[in-house]
Design brief:
The protein is of the alpha/beta class and about 180 residues long. It has helices at about 10-30, 50-55, 110-120; strands spanning about 5-10, 40-45, 65-70, 85, 95-105, 125-135, 145-150, 155, 175. It has one domain (about 5-20, about 40-175): Rossmann fold, CATH 3.40.50. About 20% of the residues lie in helices and about 30% in strands. The chain is globular and about 50 Å long. The structure holds inosinic acid and magnesium ion.
Length: about 180
């Protein structure tokens, strides 16, 4: 069966521990302020939806959420270098503290582009939180305020991350074996 080709890199339990820590750091960095708007978390679809769902429950202050969809074109497990916004935000971010929530930063092209787009909308502040970081693959520089785990240059799935839309429901992060690739 398909799952036998998967090797666990980060267990569901390790993820939960780290997400709790990230939530604690974010809570400390954005203290609740009755005079200010909610902290806006913007998740990049689709991969970041599981991370977002867990992360917001570890942040002890008011938050609001919104979603951005990107399309990137290219071979199945690499990015083409071209990023486009498929689904835009539903709400404005001018004057707000914004946290962009990513599942994984690989070449950095997506986050670099999205930060440029979001910055033009004049948020009060803009930072990035990513569950996973593959620094060895970076093409574009990105500033990551919070990183869950640095991982080696392997294609991973699970906990929201997919390959051809599959494996998002795995509780941990797994490496997909070569025969799992399309
Ligand atoms: P980047 O633009 O190269 O940084 O890649 C951004 C997007 O590529 C991520 O948000 C993922 O959707 C996808 N991606 C990169 N590496 C992986 C991986 O190992 N597994 C699943 N998706 C990945
Ligand atoms: Mg993504």
């Amino acid at each position: 069966m398909a799952y036998s080709r998967l090797e666990t890199l980060i267990s569901g339990q390790q993820l939960q521990v780290r997400v709790k820590e990230l939530g604690r750091m974010i809570t400390a960095d954005y203290p609740a302020d009755p005079g200010r708007e909610d902290l806006r978390l913007i998740a990049v679809l689709s991969g970041a939806f599981v991370f977002l769902a867990d992360l917001i429950r570890e942040i002890e202050r008011d938050v609001s959420v919104d979603f951005l969809g990107t399309n990137s074109y290219g071979p199945s497990t690499t990015t083409s270098g071209e990023v486009k916004i498929g689904k835009d935000l539903d709400h404005e971010i001018a004057g707000l503290d914004v946290l962009l929530v990513e599942d994984i930063v690989d070449t950095g092209l997506t986050v670099n582009y999205l930060c440029q787009v979001l910055q033009q909308r004049q948020p009060r502040s803009l930072r990035v939180v990513t569950l996973l970081d593959k620094p060895s693959r970076r093409i574009k520089p990105v500033e990551l305020a919070y990183v869950g785990f640095e991982i080696p240059d392997r294609f991973v799935v699970g906990y929201g991350l997919d390959h051809a839309q599959r494996y998002r429901n795995l509780p941990g992060i797994c490496v997909l074996g070569k025969d799992g690739l399309a």
